[in-house]
Design brief:
about 90% helix
Amino acid sequence: MKEPIFVGITIAASIVIAILLISSMFYVTKKGYSRNWDEEQE
């Protein structure tokens, strides 16, 4: 049995998780790049 409410919840949850992963990875990579630039300048 497929319930539309359950499908909607799963889709919303997957979208939220994807946004959190992408934002966290982007933040970490941006922080890493800034650290590398600081090290190279010194």
